[in-house]
Write a structure and sequence with these properties.
The complex is a heterodimer of chains A (125) and B (597). Chain A is 35% helix and 20% strand. By secondary structure, chain A is α+β, with helices and mostly antiparallel strands. In chain A, strands 2-1-3-4-5 form a 5-stranded mixed beta sheet. Chain A is elongated. With 597 residues, chain B is an alpha/beta fold. Chain B folds into 5 domains: 103 residues, Glutaredoxin; 211 residues, Rossmann fold; 90 residues, Ubiquitin-like (UB roll); 89 residues, Up-down Bundle (de novo design (two linked rop proteins)), CATH 1.20.1440.230; 56 residues, Alpha-Beta Plaits. In chain B, 39% of the residues lie in helices and 17% in strands. Chain B is built from 23 helices and 22 strands. In chain B, the strands form 7 sheets. Chain B has a 5-stranded mixed beta sheet, sandwiched between helices. Chain B has a 5-stranded mixed beta sheet with strand order 15-14-18-16-17, with helices on both faces. In chain B, strand 9 and strand 10 form a beta hairpin. In chain B, helix 6 crosses helix 13, helix 7 runs antiparallel to helix 8 and helix 17 runs antiparallel to helix 18. The longest helix of chain B is centred in the C-terminal third of the chain and has 19 residues. Chain B is globular and about 85 Å long. Classes of the chains: A alpha+beta (125), B alpha/beta (597). At the A-B interface, helix 1, helix 3 and strand 2 of A face strand 1, helix 5 and helix 6 of B.
Chain lengths: 125, 597
């Protein structure tokens, strides 16, 4: 790595900021149910699929979080998508193969994948 | 490759390493691999958060959960619960000492909430060994701005506008100091960083060097450009091995990146930096002694003038600033002088880092804007006195500083206000003492330190501090004489005026200020042969009140020298010949039957 100009420096700065982006909470979130029920139903595989898909699409401004059992165990694995200013949408049961569709349709384009929706939690703001 | 969804930041500063952070780090690596999570979770070693009290510290992002006192045995649970299932491990969260409330989030802890971290902004938040992370946090942009868009004169002017003053203790305006050196003629000049932090209880420079080494390098490069120097030294005490290791690595990395060395950013500006390890003498924190030491001579100060700006290292014009001062420079260049001057109070601009230690609940590094009151630092940030005891005084500025009392609690901290009260800003040590501390004994402690560290070159400091110490020891042993107080004041004033360097000129301060505010304690020692705080062992006797003692035998078990005898359910007696006056029995007695007088 040699820095010869301000442009070089700014390029490295941008790259480095991508690496450390996960060190702050983002407004856009994917939340996966990781209670015992979720894990038993395959939530780990769903999470792996989410992380791979986000990496593939270079989506660095999304926080991937987990939550516990919400009492709807028969619909696990559950996956929530939160977009700033919009309703929180819970999908389930989600299989790893559904993940690319949810990310492409909902997270990126803002169109809810209706056939997988379990619930919508209204945005309080 | 999967996306990294979480970052585990583990502090591996000296404090946390001492409490086992390296084992915790290794255990995290092992557990994450075992659970096949290593690809999606990044493990980052950071510098000091300044909250060494609660170490080893672990912070997990994106949530920003703050775990304290993490043991290797806790790691499996954190990985299983937090990283895998997303549940906070609440038993490891920080508990506020005042409210006993558990606080999950780093930013919401009272200790951090009331601070304003400018200089320490990267400490604990970036990996200090990674130049990329430093660049990601606006690093080296200040240097680029200075050398690409400004003339050296403009840089000096900017520094003058900020109102930044030397953070090593003297408080001399940094911009002026730079101007003197910049105007000093000569093709060869040096810039020096004073990292010989030696005050008992002070560790802010160490944390900066360990937690954000590139900030010091960048600040020095900017200074070198402004003053026309092409070579610099960081004089770091050898007792900071981790700081030295990280400095050397950051210098190598910056040279490889072309941000230090020859032809920086293609401007033709050259700057080489060396690290010189100190050999353990406190006096080498004095600038002329420090330069002697770099030159390989004995670490002794020489008279000024000539000042280093005219004749410094190897006889060439030199500028020497303290670690914290240098650490301010890069941000000032990046944000501009107006931004910096926004912070502060009166003629003291910006923030100051204090090492808060002693009898407070939260010890650690505290960075506050100038003008913050001592009450806010001790009670709001420090969480008050341990065990709910009574606040007595703070010793500010280390062995060169003075004590401030309850009447100064609402004093806004600035260079002027502290000097007016008889103390000094110093490098920023802040030792809090409670009602159990004897002020005579504390003055003796600090004077013993400076007396031992006196280099011996000038007589007032060498002989005078020794005489003062003899008197103080005599007083604490109950052999004080009526004329001792006047002699202490006379000697102290003479030493302050006649000593060659800062060490001697400030050494009597702890004695003089304790005499100013706690003269009655000295008088009690001398006239009544009594230590009001019950701390001077020669002046106290520990006795059991037979009327209160129920013979529970707790004290006999606590006594380390078997000086307490008695049968169960009968009043006990202390054998005064055996008693070492440690006070262990007083602490354990549930009936308050033991008296220390």
């Amino acid at each position: 790595m040699t820095i010869k100009s301000l442009e070089d420096l700014k390029k490295i700065k941008a790259e480095s900021q991508l690496q450390t982006k996960a060190r702050k909470s983002n407004d856009t979130q994917i939340i996966i149910g990781m209670g015992t029920c979720g894990i038993a139903a395959g939530a780990r595989e769903v999470m792996t699929a989410v992380l791979e898909e986000l990496a593939k699409r270079n989506l660095n401004n999304v926080s991937v979080l987990q939550t516990g059992c919400i009492g709807m165990c028969q619909k696990e694995p559950l996956l929530d998508v939160v977009r700033p200013g919009e309703d929180r949408v819970t999908y389930g049961p989600v299989s790893p193969s559904d993940v690319p569709r949810i990310i492409a349709e909902h997270l990126v384009n803002g169109n809810i994948v209706e056939d997988l929706v379990v619930a919508k939690i209204p945005n309080k703001e | 490759m999967a996306l990294v969804r979480a970052h585990i930041l583990i502090c591996t500063g000296t404090g946390c390493t001492a409490s086992g952070a390296k084992d915790v780090l290794a255990k995290f690596d092992e557990e994450l691999k075992a659970k096949k999570l290593r690809d999606e979770v990044s493990l980052v070693e950071t510098g000091c958060h300044g909250f060494c009290e609660g170490g080893p510290l672990v912070i997990i992002y994106p949530e920003g959960t703050f775990y304290t006192r993490v043991k290797p045995a806790d790691v499996a649970e954190i990985v299983e619960e937090h990283i895998l299932k997303g549940r906070t491990v609440s038993r490891l969260l920080f508990k506020e000492p005042l409210t006993a409330e558990k606080v999950p989030n780093y930013d919401e802890i009272a200790f951090y909430k009331k601070q304003h971290r400018l200089v320490l902004k990267n400490c604990g938040h970036i990996n200090p060994d990674s130049i990329e992370e430093y660049i990601g946090a606006d690093g080296y942009e200040g240097l680029a701005k200075a050398i690409l868009t400004m003339t050296p004169e403009q840089v000096v002017e900017e520094m003058k506008k900020t109102g930044l003053r030397g953070r090593g203790g003297g408080g001399f305006p940094t911009g002026m100091k730079w101007m003197f050196c910049a105007k000093s003629p000569g093709p060869k000049k040096y810039v020096i960083c004073n990292a010989d932090e030696g005050d008992p209880g002070a560790f802010m420079d160490r944390s900066l060097l360990e937690g954000d080494p590139h900030a010091i390098l960048e600040g020095m490069a900017i200074g070198a450009y402004a003053m026309g120097a092409d070579e610099g030294y960081i004089y770091c005490r050898a007792e900071y091995p981790l700081a030295i290791k990280r400095l050397l690595k950051s210098i190598t990395d910056a040279e490889e990146a072309g941000l230090l060395g020859e032809n920086i950013l293609g401007t033709g500006f050259n700057f080489t930096l060396h690290v010189k390890e100190g050999a353990g003498a406190f006096v080498c924190g004095e600038e002329t002694a420090l330069m002697n030491s770099i030159e390989g001579k004995r670490g002794m100060p020489r008279p000024r003038p000539p000042f280093p700006a005219i004749k410094g290292l190897w006889g060439k014009p030199s500028n020497i600033n303290n670690v914290e001062t240098w650490a301010n420079v890069a941000q000032i260049m990046f944000h501009g002088p107006e931004w910096y001057a926004n912070y502060g109070y009166d003629k003291s601009r910006g923030t100051k880092v204090f090492a808060l230690t002693g009898k407070v609940n939260n010890t650690g590094l505290v960075e506050v804007p100038m003008g913050t009151t001592i009450r806010e630092v001790v009670f709001d940030i420090g969480g008050g006195i341990i065990g709910g005891k009574k606040f007595k005084a703070v010793q500010i500025g280390g062995p060169s500083g003075g004590c401030l009392t309850e009447q100064h609690l609402d004093l806004p901290i600035s260079y002027e206000s502290l000097t007016a009260a008889g103390a000094i800003m110093g490098s920023g040590g802040l030792v809090v003492v409670d009602e159990d501390t004897c002020m005579v004994d504390m003055a003796r402690f600090f004077l013993e330190f400076t007396q031992r560290e006196s280099c011996g070159k000038c007589i007032p400091c060498r002989e005078g501090t020794k005489k003062m110490l003899d008197i103080l020891i005599r007083i604490t042993e109950g052999k004080g004489r009526e004329e001792d107080i006047e002699n202490l004041i006379y000697l102290g004033t003479q030493i302050k005026t006649a000593s060659l360097c800062g060490l001697g000129q400030t050494a009597p301060n702890p004695v003089l200020t304790t005499l100013r505010y706690f003269r009655h304690e000295y008088e009690a020692h001398i006239r009544e042969k009594r230590c009001p705080a019950g701390a001077c062992k020669a002046l106290i006797t520990i006795k059991i009140d037979p009327a209160k003692c129920v013979g529970c035998t707790k004290c006999t078990k606590a006594c380390p020298v078997n000086a307490i005898a008695g049968t169960v359910k009968q009043p006990h007696v202390i054998d005064q010949d055996k008693c070492i006056k440690c006070g262990a029995c007083v602490e354990v007695c549930p009936f308050k039957a033991i008296d220390k007088k």
